Structure formats: structure tokens, C-alpha cells
Amino acid sequence: MLFDHESAWADEQIYNKIYENSIKFPNEFWTHHIKDISWQKEPDSAFDEISEKWLSGGISNVCYNCVDRHALKNPNKPAIIWYGDEENDRREISFSKLLDIVTKIASILKSRGIKKGDVVGIYMPMVPEAIAAMLACARIGAIHLVIFAGFSAEALAYRLSSANAKVLLTINAFKRGGKEVNLSKNFDLLKSDIKIINLENLENYKVELTNEINWQNSEDDLFILYTSGSSGNPKKIVHSALPYMLYVTTTFKIIFGIKEDDVYFCTSDIGWITGHSYITYAPLFYGLTTVIFSGSPTYPTADRYWKIIEQEKVSIFYTAPTAIRSLQMFNKKFVKDHDLSLLRILGSVGEPINKSAWKWYFETVGNKKCPIMDTWWQTETGGIVIAPLRSLHQKPAVAGRPFFGIKTNIIYSELIIENKWPGICKTSKSHEVFKTGDGAIYDGNDIKISGRMDDVINISGHRLGTAEFECAINKINEVKESAVVAVPDEIKGQTAFAFVVLNDNKNSIPDIIKKIIKSTRNIIGPIAKADFVAFVPDLPKTRSGKIVRHLLRDVANNRKNLSEIHSVANPKAIEFAKIAASQAIFCPDMCRL
Ligand code: PRX
Questions:
Q1: Cβ(449) to ligand 1 under 6 A?
Q2: Which of 47, 330, 415, 454 makes an SS bond possible with 440, Cβ 3.0 to 4.6 Å?
Q3: Which residue has its alpha carbon closest to ligand 1 atom 13?
């Protein structure tokens, strides 16, 4: 079932031929791949070009495909290998054990009255039960809503209430980097009608087990995930069950060229789309072992990833440029002390990878023997959209080619998608081309991604809206208004730079900065920190009163030629911004105040 497309993403001529056909005859392409799914009832067509519907009439279940069928065929094969904060924290969950855990959680949910279509919140670190919780929802047709365990109480409460979640699956606390992270302290703001179910001592939980599967059709939803857009509120993304499953699994199979005995390790978190598509659903669908890690890559020493790869004989490793850059700072010995010879594919996701990180990843980690799959995609696209062909002669830091069946284009420097594909989120408008918000250029036949063009900042691969920062900063009494823009950061890729206008106030600047840090931390989470703050008397605005953020972006980035100054009604504000930016306060220093 796995092997007929190994060369599709490796040989340029074969790629070109399949690609051309897949654009002309999408139904034909996708019909071939729906065969990997175990159907209760086969769909009438993979893609109906007239109604633009995927998998019409098909009936299946995502959990059945990821768990049950492998538990029947390969019950003892490890489905999940978990590593925790300390080096000897290791658990191995076979497919048959995973089925037991999933069945138990599904039974608990049912006993609490959860039905098909109900929303179930999951606020958990990277433990096997978190993945089992997602699968349990899929099994009974409930819609999971995972909230990253690093998000604050407010961020948690907002997401649960705006998605109308009925229950929250969680644990009280876990350890990361040698420190305890307490999740239960964040439950105070939750509405009283949300039931909290603690999955910590699952074995002791008494419940009547039910094995029933709620079969899903092509219109049913699998999950909700919030991400950031250009407004102040998190953006709700909904993915369908069956078409999404078809897309993530086909991209995984072809782009990584998977083999049955691959051991796969992705360092993302289920709080993000990568953790949904390529930690949980795609590897388990193909019955691969997925290695997960809830600790910190540098605790107790900076070789945790490399040690895990050696111990588990990992063949595909998928991580983010920010992790590569931070590990690149340590002595090569941390990598070289480990036998990584079974690695055959390295992946990168979440932000543009710079040449130096690419080179280090290729040479030091991959020993010049593994292609770097620089995969570009988004929460909205469900799965990988652009990746380089699998070869040892890649162009560093160039994302590559569109996946089969996807028609990309670059219009006014923005990457757009002109047709439909099964992974597109349900919340995207059906009649329009899909705008990605990312800048791109052609490099020969390849697409090179330059980064976001809108008001989204990518901090360590985490997407945050500048407006979300501004809302948090503007909540402080002393602040009149603010504008947040992105500036480059050596490790994090980008970081936030805040221009802040104060009311008349008597508080000291260090106190105000502390309040800014506290407010973004409370409202969004610790990942949301403005590293630079510049105090200005006024912000540049258009005649209609809109803040001209792109000018402030130019100023914060110290660009000499500022664009479109004529649109500013108060040009003096630009001069103030320049002076303030040159004296901006670096907040990491202020944290220690
Ligand atoms: O700007 C692009 C960047 O991450 C954004 C999507 O973020 P999110 O929805 O959180 O999903 C991240 C995981 C898929 C994109 O709009 N991005 C993601 N991968 C790459 C990238 N930028 C450049 N190169 C990539 N490989």
C-alpha cells in the first residue's frame, strides 16, 4: 500500500509528469490515493469537479484508520514512543495498548454525555494520552479543540468558550526543563458548565467500556484549531475528517517517501497544526511508530534530540528552524557523540530556514546523506503544500514544488492557490482563490518563501497576530495605544517590536515595561513577548486614522528608504518613531529588574 510513489517526489521528470496530470485530472490523482483508506462505504468519487466536493458518499472513521486496523494486524508494534523530561522517562505504547487507551477515553466521554458533533477541549502536554484523546474524539465523532499547554488561562478560556466546548480533557501538571508546569492553575477563568476530566490516572478511572465507532461522512468535522490572523481575536480554523485525512496522509507518504519500517520523530506539539497532521494522524494512519517528546531539547544536556534519534533508530526527523538555530549554538560534539546513521530524511517546518541553519542541519545532523525537506504550509492548508524534491542536490533554503493537485501562483509577490485541494480548511471561502499571506518568488522552477506579508509575526515558528499583542498592551492603564511590528531575531526567526504611546502617567518606565510583559504573558502566553519597546508621543496614521504599520516596520528594521510616507497625516510621528526606535528598550534585560 505504501510503495508505489517513492520516486514521485524524487525524480524531476516523474514529478513533472504526475504534477501536470494531477492538475488536469485531479479526480484521477486522488482516486488512486483513496485506496489507502479503509472504507466502511467507498465514496462515489474522490473529487466531484462540478460540485467541488471531496469524497462524496464515502463513510469511514479517522480513528479506525489510525488505530483499529493496525491493532488487528500489528498489535505489538509500538505506535507511540514517549520521552519525558528526564532521560529515563520513556514509555512505549503498542497499537493494541493505544486502542485500549483510546477506547477508555472514548467511553469516558460518552459516559459524560458527549455526542457526535460536540466540541471537546484538550489542554495537555505531549504525552501519549493527549494523542489518544484526539483519537478518542475522532472515534465518537466529537470535534477536538487542542489548546497549546503553553497558553495562558485567558487564552484557554477564550478558545473553549468561543468554540462552545462541553468538556476539557487535561492533566494537572507536568515537568519541562526540570521545572514543574502547573496547568490546573489556569482553570479558574473557565465557565462553570465546562466539565474538567483529568486523564492522569486513567487506569483507575471506572467506566463501562464501549467499543462503538461513530462512522464519519465527508461533511463531518474532525477538529477546530485556533491560530492567529490579522485581527485581535484568534482565528478559528475547522478541518473536515475524511478529506483532511486523505490530504495529510498522501502528502506524508509521497513527500517523505515513507517505508513500512520507518521510525518517525517530529518535535512539534499537538497544540499546533504540525502536531495534528504529522505527529498524530499521518504516521499512525500508515502504522508507523511516532516518537514524541515532552521535555526540553537542552535539558539536562543539549543532546536530547540526538540521543532519542540514536536510541530509537529514527529514520525521519522533522523539526523547526528555531530549534535547529538554538542547537547549532552548542558544540558539534553534542551531535557527533551519537550514531545518527539510520536517519534518511530531515524535515523543517514553521518558518523560512536560513542558509546557515540549513547547512548545519545537512552537514552536522544529516552527515550530507539526508535531503532536507523544507516544507511550507499553514494551519489553513491542513498539510504540506510546497516541498523540495527529495535529493541530495537541493538549493539551500528554497521551499520547492507544489504538491500534486495544487495549483500555486505568485501574484503581487504573494503566494496564492488557485484551485481546491482536500486539505483546505472548511472555514475558507469556497469561491475565491486562496490567499496565503506569505511573500514568495520563483527561483528557477522552485518557489522560495520570504515570509508573512500581513500583520502576523512568526516567533519561533509560532504564529501570533500583531493585533493580539496590541490588545494585550492596550489593556494597561498607562497605555494610550500601541503598534507592534516584526523584527528579525537570530534564534527565534522574528520577534515583536512595540511602539507604545503613554497616557499622562506617574509610573516609572521599568514598571510599565514589567506590566507590558505581564499583560502579554497573561492574555496570550509566555511565547508572546515583545523583546523591544519604544515609547513615542504619537503613531503615524492615515487621514482616516489607521496606524501605518508598514512604515513602523521599516523604522524598527532600520530601513533607510521608507515607503509611502505621503499616506501619513502626521509625518512628525515618523521622525519621533525613528528616534525612539534607536533608543528602544531591550526587554529581556528588563525581565530581570
Ligand atoms: O509564514 C509561513 C510560515 O508559517 C506560517 C503558517 O503558520 P501556522 O499556520 O502556524 O503553521 C505552521 C506549520 C505549518 C506560514 O504562513 N511557514 C511555515 N512553514 C514554512 C513557513 N515559512 C517558510 N518556510 C516554511 N517551510
A1: yes
A2: 415
A3: 350
